[in-house]
# Entry
Amino acid sequence: MAEGLPATPARPSLSLPETLRLGLFQACLGCLAVIFAGLLNRVMLTELGFPGLLVGTSLAFEQFVAPSRVLFGQISDSHPLARRHRVPYVLLGTALFCGIAVIAVPLIFAVGRIFHQGSPGAIALAVVALGALFACYGLAVSLATTPYLALVIDRTNEQERSRAVGVIWCMLTVGIVVGAILISLSLRSLDGIRDPQLLEPTLSAFMARVAIGVMGLTVIATWGMESPIRSPGVSQGGSREDGVTLRQAWTLIRSSRQVLIFFSFLILFTLALFLQDPVLESYGAQVFGMAIAATAQLNAFWGVGTLVGLLVAGVWIVPWLGKLATARLGCQLIALSLLLLLLSGITASVPALQVVMVLFGLAAGIGTNGALCLMLDLTLPEVAGTFVGVWGLAQALSRALGKVIGGGLFDLGNWLSGSGLFPRSVGSYPAYALVLVIELLVAIAALLMLQRVNVRQFRDDTRQSLAKVLTAEWS
# Structure
C-alpha cells in the first residue's frame, strides 16, 4: 500500500446465501425500473399522447441529479447513521423512492389532463412538476444505491467480487423479469383500454402494492449486512472519517487521465444499452401492433437474456477471457443486437422481435458483467463510496442523455416522416429506425473507447494520486 494511505477496513466475506439476500435490493430496483422506464413511459407516450421529447426529458431528470451520487458516496464514507456507514442510507433512500413512486401515477395523469385541456401557463407548471417528480425519485435512488454498491465493495475482496457482481446483477435482472410478469398479470384487464379514468385507479393501486413489497424486501436484504462501528468516529478496521473530503475526491478524480477514459467508456456503454429505452415499448405498439401487456413482456425477454448473459460471463467468459476482453465482447454483441433490432422492424414480426430482445439481453449481460467487474476493481477501497458515486454518475448521466436523445431523435424522425421524406406506407418505422441507428453508432464508439482503458496504469495513477492528496492535506 502506498505510504500515507489509511488502512483498508477488514472485509468479512459474503457467503452465497448472503449474496443472494443482499441481491434482493437489486431485484427491487429492477422491478421498479420496468415500471418507470417501461410501463409509465409507454402510458405517457401511447395512452396519454405526450410528445416523445417531453417524456424523454421528464424521465431524464431522474439521472440529471446524478452528481448527487458523488456527494452521497462521500457522506456515506464520512458520516455514519445509527453507527453504520451504508445500510441506514440504503433504507432511507428506499423509503423515499417508494413514497415518490406511489404519487407518480396520479401526478402523471393530472399532467395529462392539464396538457390536453389547460392553458399554456398551467401546462408549463405541470411539466415542471413532472420533471421535479422524477428528479426527486432520482435523488432517492442515488441515496440508496451508492452506499449499497460501496457495501458490496466493503464486504468482498477482488477474488470474490466477480461472483458477487454476477449474483447481484442476476438478481437485478430477475427483478426486471418479475416486474414485467407482474405488469402482464396485474394489468391484463387494461388491454385495449385508453380511457385515463379507467387506467389511473388500476395503475395507482398496482404501484402502491409494488412500493410496499419493495420496502419490505429491502429491509430483509440489508438486515445484519453491516456491523455497527465500535464507537463514534471509528470505523471497522480503519478510519473512514479521516479519509477524503469531497474536495479531495474531485482532486483525485481529475488527476488521472485513466479515470476520464473509463468514465467516458461507462457513459457510451450505458448509452448503447438504453438509448432505445424511452421508445422501445412504443416501438412494439406502433410498429408491431402489440398491446400493453405484450410490450411489457419485451422487458421479460430482455431480462431473461441478460440473466443468462450475466451467469455465462461470471462463471465461464470472465475466468476464460478476463474482465477487459469480456467487456469488449459485450460491446461487439450489443452492436450486432442493435442491428438485428433495427432489421426486425422491417418484417414487423413479433416472434422475431422477441428473439432479438433475448439476444440483446444476452449481449447486455455479458457486457455488463465485464464492465461492472472492471468498475469495482478500479475502485479504491479507501474511498469506495466516493468512487462508486463517480461511476454511478457516469451511468446515470448516460441514462439521462439516453432518455433525452432517444425521445428527441424519435420526434425528429416523426418530423422527417411528416415532411414527406419517407413514404406513408412505412408508417412510424423511420422514427424508431433513426433512434436505433444512432444507438448502434454509440455502441461502436464505446468499443473504441474501451481499447484505451489500461487497468494497471489506472490503479498506479490513482493510488499515487490518493497518496499525494492525503499527504498534502496532512502536511
Summary: The first helix runs from residue 16 to 47. Residues 212 and 269 are 33 Å apart (CA to CA). The chain has one domain: 16-228+245-474. The radius of gyration is 22 Å.
